[in-house]
Structures are given as C-alpha cells and as structure tokens.
Amino acid sequence: MSEVEEFEELRPLLFSIAYRILGSVAEAEDAVQETWLRFAASSTRPASTKAYLSAAVTRISIDVLRSARVRREEYVGPWFPEPLLNDPYQDPARAVELADSVSMAALLLLERLSPLERAVFVLREVFGFGFGEVASAVGRSEAACRQLLVRARRHMADGRPRFEADRQERQELATRFFDALKDGDMGGLQELLAADVQLVGDGGGKAPQFARAVVGAQNVARLLTAVVPRLAHLDVSAEPHEINGQPGAVYRDRDGRVLQTVVLDILDGRIQTIRAVLNPDKLGHMGPVADAWALDRELKRARR
User: Is 0.85 topped by the overall pTM?
Assistant: First the structure.
C-alpha cells in the first residue's frame, strides 16, 4: 500500500481525533492536512503508520488548542463547537464512546480540561489507545498520562451528559418539536420542553442572537413561536438532520444557504437544552452561508 493510500485509509480516524480535541471542523481539517505534510516529508516509514499519524495529529491539535483558548476567552457570547453533520470514523466496537463524545454537551464539557488532559481522555477513553501509544502521542510518561486521565475523568464525571438511550424515541420527539415549531403551536411545544429548559445561541457577535440564555418552558415556547413561523414566511426552511450525534435541524434561507443549526439535548422524554449556532464562521463547511443580519432586517420590516 502506498503512503497516500495508507494516509487516506486513516484520514477519518485522524479527523475524528482532531475534532474532539479542537471542537472545530475547519481546525481539525487543517490539523489533518498538516499531519499529511509531515508524513509525506518524512524520509523513513514508521513501524506503525496508525500510531505515527495519530500521535502527529494529536500534537498538532494540542498546539492549535492552546492558541485557540486565548481567542475563546475573548469570544462574544457563548462559545459552541462547530456543528458536525457526519462523523467520518466508525468503529462498531466503540460506537457508544464515539457517539457520546461527539455531542455538543460532551464537547463543551471537554472544554473544562487542559489541552493535555483533553488529548489523553480522547485517545484513551474514546478511541481506546493503549497507554504506551497515548504517552508517545502527548510526550509524557505513561504514569503521567494515567494521572492526567484520572483528573480528566473526574472533571467529565461532574457534568457527564446523559441522553435518551432509545434513538427512535429521541427522533420522534424531535420530529414533534419541529412540527410544533413550524405550526406555531405554543401549547404543543411547551409539552415537549423540560420545565427548566434552556435556549442558547452562539452568534459570536457576527449574527443576531439572544443577549443571554432563555430559560423555562413557557419563555422558550413563547419566543420560538413568535420568531420561527415568521421566518417561514420569509421562506426559511428547517432540514431535519442529526448534528453531533443528536437530533437537530439545519435552517436554510430561500436560496438554500445555511442560516443556523439547532441541536436538541433530550432526557427523560423532554428537551433539556436547545443550542443554536448562528456564527457564520462556524457554518461555512456546510456550504454557502446566509446573511443573518439581512434576514433579521427583513423580519423586522415584516412586523411593521
């Protein structure tokens, strides 16, 4: 097998590692590309291509994350990971770990960890790498990696996201939610929401967004039924889609450009959190992006 073929076979794994460390599709793709450049430039073939490439993409991702942390401290409003429509890496033996670790809630929880803790947790807990491979990837001893993992597990356990086990039930509830939203059915919507549900938007100061999280079933239902049906009159449509392994939708304008993504966290038969990503910088990997400000102005004119 040629170098290119070996690399392409491992590309889905490399992207999935980088995305979980970085929470960014664009940065993960850049990290994978940089990994290829280093691999192609190497004069010797590694004993294990998988171990070599996984270690390389991990180190690159750690460096990127350290600089990204500084930018995120100055971020306007809540910061969410870039929406991921499809995880390219699949492993039936680790399906549960892979699905849990890619959810928005889990990725936000990973933000609590240091870059090294995050990398160790992702490699060991999500992808099942041995401690020797993890140690080589992050440049620490196996003993140090075990300590990093203990700390990471403790942080993750404090706020471990839990979701409905039955995927079909989640999808059915999500379908009812988006149908009620489309119809402007406030009562029907409210029945699907947890009493303390939160609606949170990430616009990054580059798109219209709520000043703060909207909390409570009645408040969230009132706001959504006031805004979403009006958007439908402007030919904005919701395309149901699993996002970060959770039920959600991609909203598009009349020209098919991406306006926002919406993801639902569901537990005990109720929607606990609704996360909307509107920052255009985080939507470009899904295609052309809509002008949210122009739509907002159009919406305001329609109200008059």
Answer: yes
